[in-house]
Design a protein that fits this description.
By secondary structure, this protein is mainly alpha-helical.
Length: 309
Amino acid sequence: MSNLITKSAPLVVIMIFGLVSVGAQTNPLWAERKVKNYLPHMTVPEVQDFLKYSDMVIIPIGALEQHGAHLPIGTDIINGIERCKLIAQERDVLVSPIMMVGQSPYHMGFAGTISLSAHLILQVHMEAVESLIAHGFNRFIIMNAHGGNRAISTLLVDQINQTTAGVAVSFSQAIQPYLQPVSAPQSDVLDRHAGTGETSNSLYLMPGLVQLEMAESAKLTLPSHLEKMLPEVIKEEPTAKLLFLAEGLKAKETGKSTSSAEMSSTGVWGERSPKESSAARGKASTDAMVAAAIQFIDRWNELVDKKGE
C-alpha cells in the first residue's frame, strides 16, 4: 500500500497544482477597483449601512456618441461617472448611474453613436428614481454630463419634485453659487464638442482612453448665417450664443444642415486643435467643480438638519 501511495504521489501533486493554478487565474482584462459609495460596486449590506447616515443620490446622465478620432464614444457618461465618484469620496452621496445612452440624433452620421428618445430616457430615469425612493433614498442631484440632455435633465428634476416623495436639484444650478472661475486659454476660433475643454477633462478623468495622437483639426462647414454669427459666439455674446446653439448641432432630419457630419470633417465641433489640451487644465476644472459640489452638499445637509430641529 505504501508503495502504491509513493508511486501515486507525483500524480496527486500534479492534480493539486493544477487545481490551484486554475483557481488562481482571473480575468486578464480586469483592472477596476472597488470605489466607495459607487452603487454598482456595493453590496446590499453596504447600501443598508449607507442609508443610516445619508439619503442623497447623484445621478450622472451622459451619452454614447462620437467624439472625433481621439476620444471614446463613451466620453460623456464616463467623465460624468468619474466626476460623481470624486465627489462621493469627499461626501456621503450615492453614485447611481442609470443608463449609458442619451439623446444624440445629430451625431448619428458617425459610426458608433447611439441615440434614444427623450421620452424613453425620462421614463427609465423616473422608474429608477422610484426604485431608489422605495429603498429610502429621498434627495437627488441630477448631473447632466451631455449638452443634448439638458432639457431632459430639467424635466427629470421637475417630475421627481412634482410626482414623487423625492426632492431633486440640477447639479449645474446647485453648484453655480459656489463655483470658482477657472482660467482657460482664450480661443479666437470655435472650440466646443470634443475640443480642448472636453479633451482636457478627459485627459485628467480617463487618461487611458484618450488617443491624443489621433486628434486632428476639423474643417468646419457651417450654414452661412451661423458662420456670420461666429465672431460674436466666440466672444460669448449671450444672444448670438443662444441662437447659435438653438440651431447648431441638430439632427439631419430637421433640414437645418447642422448635424455634426454636415458641419465637421472629424466630428469635432471646433477648429482649434485638440492637441492643445492638457491634463492640468482638466484637473483645475474638475477640482473647482468638486469643491463647489462639496459646498452645496454641506449646505443642503445643514438646511435639512435645521428642518429637523
